[in-house]
TrEMBL record:
Lineage top rank: taxon: Eukaryota
SUPFAM superfamilies (UniProt xref): Clavaminate synthase-like
Residues in Fe2OG dioxygenase domain copies: 238-339
Protein name (Swiss-Prot/TrEMBL): Fe2OG dioxygenase domain-containing protein
Annotated organism of origin: Ceratopteris richardii (Triangle waterfern)
InterPro entries cross-referenced by the UniProt entry: DIOX_N (IPR026992), IPNS-like_FE2OG_OXY (IPR044861), IPNS-like_sf (IPR027443), Iron_ascorbate_oxido_reductase (IPR050231), Oxoglu/Fe-dep_dioxygenase_dom (IPR005123)
Lineage: Eukaryota, Viridiplantae, Streptophyta, Embryophyta, Tracheophyta
Length: 394
């Protein structure tokens, strides 16, 4: 839902919709299936239907069949936070370099206790192993973006995944309206499943992840030559951060589908726990997709769109995607860290000058997010908003 580019008109190489349909049917040996899944008891991952088929040019053809490690030849930087108390300068430099050169890095010795991480993984497995009918008791709706969802699209293609979204701190707050100037805000509360009370162990994880998110924010901001707390007040009582549990079931046709199609994260930064099953791929500057080697001790951190705007494009939000697997299910846990809905977002003024003009005009973060949420549920008749809509020619 926070993926940039989700629900945009798909760019593809089929000549017509009919041709596209024919190709899908030929691949699958079945007619397309338009059933409305969100209300039914059917598990979408018991079979494979045309809605999961990714256009040929975006299919994950490489190294999938073997799961080979050839794709690990290049890997994103790993930064050890153990010495943060006494070697801060060196860590700030490493973070700055990683953000500029990769937009992605991993952190180890991050301070989130292993017991909390394990508790989260255990509860996530229990939740996703529950019958679909039970999971639907907490399903996400047009009125509440928090909860369970197994029908998400990215780039108009159905993701091979099911998710459960939660707001750290218990609730999520957005402006009531995209257009009007001041219509107040709307609060959405977490939905906790009555059949699994122990899932609230996630609250411990979210608390620890938020602490780490502030540490990383400070490091990124400091690496741009600013006081570490420069943007703190944008985040201190923010209620737009989101925690997601992703479950990618085993997939009978991993060469045709993706767990999440290529996208950028809309937020300031993402802290991802990816467990020990590979799947996350990052697009390098030369266009090659590389696999982020799983390290169960590490978190994968990436720069999001908000940081790209703050930094006036010094740090870029990078495209990534998730490949799925025939043999083993995968879980991942992104914590999406975002400013408060009231924040007017733009390049941080100290980073701009007559020689380095702002590349974005200011826009309200909450309204931007509200618009993107709305477009998840109805065709607004206009393309989904992107940060590039606020770009100015300089
Ligand atoms: O599952 C992963 O490794 C990444 C998921 C992701 O990119 C997302 O949920 O935005
Ligand atoms: Fe992502």
């Amino acid at each position: 839902m926070v993926a940039e580019g989700a629900h945009l008109p798909r760019q593809h190489c089929f000549v017509s919709a009919q041709e596209e349909q024919k190709e899908k049917e030929a691949i699958l040996g079945l007619a397309s299936d338009d059933r409305e899944l969100s209300g039914s008891g059917l598990n979408p991952f018991d079979g494979f239907d045309a809605s999961f088929v990714v256009p040929p040019e975006h299919r994950p053809s490489r190294h999938l069949a073997t799961g080979s490690s050839e794709s690990f030849a290049r890997d994103i930087p790993v930064i050890d936070l153990a010495s943060l108390g006494y070697e801060r300068k060196s860590i700030v430099q490493q973070v700055g370099r990683a953000c500029e050169e990769w937009g992605f890095f991993q952190v180890v010795n991050h301070g989130v206790p292993q017991t909390i991480v394990q508790g989260l993984k255990d509860e996530a497995k229990k939740f996703f192993d529950s019958p679909r009918g039970m999971k639907l008791q907490v399903k996400r709706t047009a009125d509440n973006p928090l909860g369970f969802n197994d029908g998400e699209l990215t780039k108009n293609v159905r993701d091979w995944k099911e998710v459960y979204d939660m707001a750290p701190g218990g609730f999520f707050e957005l402006p009531a309206d995209f257009e009007a100037d001041d219509t107040g805000s709307v609060i959405h509360r977490n939905q906790w499943p009555s059949f699994l009370p122990s899932l609230r162990a996630c609250e411990d994880y979210m608390e620890a992840a938020e602490k780490l998110a502030f540490t990383l924010l400070e490091l990124m901001v400091e690496s741009m030559g600013l006081p570490p707390c420069r943007t703190h007040k944008h985040f201190e009582s923010s209620r737009t951060s989101l925690f997601r549990m992703n479950h990618y079931p085993v997939c009978p046709a991993p060469e045709l589908a993706l767990g999440v199609s290529r996208h950028k994260d809309t937020v300031a930064l993402t802290i991802l726990l990816q467990g020990d099953v590979e799947g996350l791929e990052v697009k390098c500057q030369d266009g090659e997709w590389i696999t982020v080697k799983p390290n169960p001790e590490a978190f994968v951190i990436n720069v999001g769109d908000v940081m790209q705007v703050y930094s006036n494009d010094k740090y870029q939000s990078i495209e990534h995607r998730v490949v799925v697997n025939k043999n083993v299910e995968r879980y991942s846990f992104p914590y999406f860290f975002s400013p408060g809905h009231w924040v007017d977002l733009g390049p941080i003024p100290e980073l701009t000058s007559d020689q380095c003009l702002p590349k974005y005009k200011s826009f309200n973060w909450g309204k931007y997010l509200k618009r993107r949420f709305d477009s998840n549920y109805k065709d607004l008749g206009v393309p989904n908003l992107q940060i590039s809509d606020y770009r100015v020619n300089v």
